[in-house]
TrEMBL record:
<keyword id="KW-0418">Kinase</keyword>
<dbReference type="GO" id="GO:0016301">
    <property type="term" value="F:kinase activity"/>
</dbReference>
<dbReference type="InterPro" id="IPR027417">
    <property type="entry name" value="P-loop_NTPase"/>
</dbReference>
<keyword id="KW-0808">Transferase</keyword>
<dbReference type="InterPro" id="IPR052922">
    <property type="entry name" value="Cytidylate_Kinase-2"/>
</dbReference>
<protein>
    <submittedName>
        <fullName>Adenylate kinase family enzyme</fullName>
    </submittedName>
</protein>
Length: 66
């Protein structure tokens, strides 16, 4: 059974759409790494605020605007 899938690609290549579809099909959580490291306006989060990927994926995904 697959436990993790990593989607990598350039800007605008469809990573988020593919990840969302894979999450729906597989039932796996989708974690957008940008949300872990970047604040609104693409300013980097301070090191002490960077969240670990083990943070609840549902919380992370709800904060995703796209």
């Amino acid at each position: 059974m697959i436990k993790r899938i990593m989607v990598i690609g350039g800007a605008g290549s469809g990573k988020s759409s593919l990840a969302r579809t894979l999450g729906e099909i597989s039932g796996l959580p989708v974690i957008h790494v940008d949300v872990l490291y970047w604040q609104p306006g693409w300013t980097m989060r301070p090191q002490d605020e960077i969240r670990h990927p083990a943070t609840s994926s549902s919380t992370i995904c709800k904060n995703r605007t796209k």
